[in-house]
Design goal:
Layout lengths: L1 H41 L25 H9 L2 H32 L3 H12 L9 H10 L9 H20 L5 H8 L4 H12 L1 H17 L2 H6 L8 H6 L10 H33 L4
Helix pairs in contact: 1-12, 2-12, 3-4, 3-6, 3-9, 4-6, 6-9, 6-12, 7-8, 9-12
């Protein structure tokens, strides 16, 4: 009887703890989602209705303007060109990071020595270097090397994104048996064929999780394009949103909220679709080598 009573008490206590954790996670979820909800409801209001007193209120019949803010933001601020530049920068940067860093992680794992060890430590060290330490030198270097357009700024993003990507790819490759690559080599594959035909498909979980993390970073980045690009000719989405601030401190809050909603929506959809791969990729890379 004592054992049954003890097991029942433990089971009840465990259910209570689980319920408490679920309640806590629900509260945290609401806290994280609420700012996005505020942006959505305010993007549907008239400019006069967005104030310190009514910013938290739902749109009413008098304040609701439908898609007017979205149409105004897209047409008046040349938002489509900014969307194109952000898309080009994000796609080229993420593809370059994935290809180069996956090959680097494979090399570091399979070619052991002082050189590969030094490469790995340098990549990991780059993650802790504050961007503010190098931003002025970087801006001058980018102008000198003509890396100040949306079509070649990906090289700079490769340098800043390599630390995390190499760290994740190296951790995952340590869990991949080398016998698979040796079998491919016996069949006559050269190193490039081994990587792209054998290793590359195996890297799918880490590849997707790294792509999601790097995409969210590059897509939302404001400071690097602001420093490197010619702001009169090229404006990414974060840069274009800043131009809703007019003279004398006036801010067009309605169109700004609408453009922010357009900006975050692709990332939210991408994250919701691929979120399971983030956990798989991180767990796959969490091995000891």
């Amino acid at each position: 009887m004592k054992k049954i009573y003890h097991d029942g008490a433990v089971s009840g206590a465990r259910r209570a703890v689980d319920a408490l954790l679920i309640a806590l996670l629900v509260v945290l979820c609401v806290v994280w989602v609420y700012p996005v909800f505020l942006i959505l409801i305010n993007s549907l209001k008239a400019e006069s209705a967005i104030s310190t007193t009514s910013v938290f209120e739902l749109p009413t019949a008098a304040s609701f303007v439908g898609l007017h803010n979205y149409i105004y933001g897209v047409t008046q601020m040349n938002f489509l060109s900014s969307f194109f530049y952000s898309l080009v920068i994000t796609v080229t940067s993420v593809v370059l990071i994935l290809v180069c860093c996956s090959m680097c992680g494979w090399y570091i794992t399979r070619v052991t020595g002082k050189v590969s060890r030094a490469m790995y430590l340098l990549c990991v060290f780059s993650m802790i270097v504050p961007f503010q330490m190098v931003m002025f030198t970087l801006s001058k270097t980018a102008d000198t090397l003509r890396l100040n357009t949306p079509f070649n700024i990906a090289i700079i993003y490769l340098g800043f994104g390599a630390g995390l990507a190499v760290f994740m790819f190296t951790g995952f490759m340590k869990s991949v048996p080398i016998a698979i690559e040796e079998a491919a080599m016996i069949d006559g594959c050269n190193p490039l064929q081994i990587f792209f035909k054998v290793v590359f498909p195996i890297l799918k979980p880490t590849m997707i999780s790294t792509a999601i993390l790097e995409t969210m970073w590059v897509w939302n980045d404001y400071l690097l394009p602001q420093l490197v690009l010619d702001i009169k000719q090229y404006r990414t989405i974060p840069m274009a949103i800043q131009y809703f601030r007019g003279s004398y401190g006036k801010v067009e809050m309605g169109p700004m909220m609408a453009c922010i909603m357009i900006t975050v929506l692709p990332i939210i959809i991408m994250y919701l679709v691929c979120q399971k791969y983030i956990i798989e990729g991180v767990i796959a890379g969490a091995v000891k080598g």
